[in-house]
Amino acid sequence: MAGRDAVKFAHAQFMSDVAALAPGHWQWSGWLTPKGRVIALFALLKLDDETLWLLLPDFGAGELASQLQRYVFRSKLELKPRDDLDISGTFAAPTRAAGAVFARNGESIELDMGADGGARTLRIDATRAADDPKSQSEWLAFDLAHGLPHLPESQREHWTPQQLSLERLKAFSVKKGCYPGQEIVARTHFLGQAKRGLAALCAAKPIPMEAGVELDGAAIGKVVSATPGEPCFALAVLPLDRGFGALTSAGLGLNDIGLRDGLAR
To answer: Phi, psi (5° rounding) for residue 9?
Structure first.
């Protein structure tokens, strides 16, 4: 996303405070429906005052650009997927990036994706990295353990930012001006009406996506993200005040392992 009005447009459309983000920094952000449901969740990078990059783990760049284009009207900006760039990650400390400050060398960018669970580095450049399913599964498990949900198409437009506990990632603002869904988000925040949030769960075997979660046999929530391997790590939207008892999903016993911190930016 680039152009004279790129930051202004993104600030009006996305749920984070894009205008307050300094060049060379990044933040978690997202795009909501008018009813405050999350369409897409992403990392938003401000390269300069007229250039933003969106790093989309679950949503096609071309599809999102096409949907956003409907709201451009007379704004001076270009929405262009960068199909020439690739994304890779390593479980190692960044060379220069730190926290919300990314490191840039031309069109090669390094992000600090580490948290309490250890160091991680994500790189954006033109070099294609070899696929490593085991490491990709470990990366996903790290994301889920720190409260970063991955939303497949079936989970889009289902959950509010508070139901996904995105305040833990500082992914939305309740103080900036209007954006789609802002009224719902602000009302929930200021009236203290958030009654559901994310729980980090672990099972011995894979849990089907969108499987229900039961407490002592009574349905209380739904799985929104899960790793494919054994053991299985998952995120589910559950009541914040659910009491105690045996958690199960698809006949599997679940352990509530608690969300880890450190991935907020």
So the answer is: -65, -50
Position 92 scores a pLDDT of 98
Query: The tokens of 209 are what?
Result: 């996506």
CA–CA separation, 89 vs 171, rounded Å?
Answer: 21
Element (H, E) at 85: none
Output DSSP code: residue 154.
Answer: G
Cβ–Cβ under 8 Å, residues 254 and 203: yes
Helix spans in the chain (H): 6-13, 61-69, 133-145, 182-190
CA distances from 142 to 91, 149, 201, 237 (A): 10, 10, 13, 18
Q: What is the mean pLDDT of residues 178-197?
A: 94
Q: What does the block give as tokens for 239?
A: 């009541």
CA 111 remoteness from chain centre: 15
pTM of the model: 0.95
Residue 22 has pLDDT above 90, yes or no: yes
Instruction: Determine the Cα–Cα distance for residues 232 and 229; give it in Å rounded to an integer.
Output: 6
Q: Which residues of 47-57 are buried (b: 16+ CB within 10 A; e: fewer)?
A: beebebbbbbb
CA 260 and chain centroid, separation: 15
* C-alpha distances out from residue 156 to 38, 94, 147, Å: 6, 32, 17
> Which of 8, 19, 45, 31 is CA-nearest to residue 265?
45
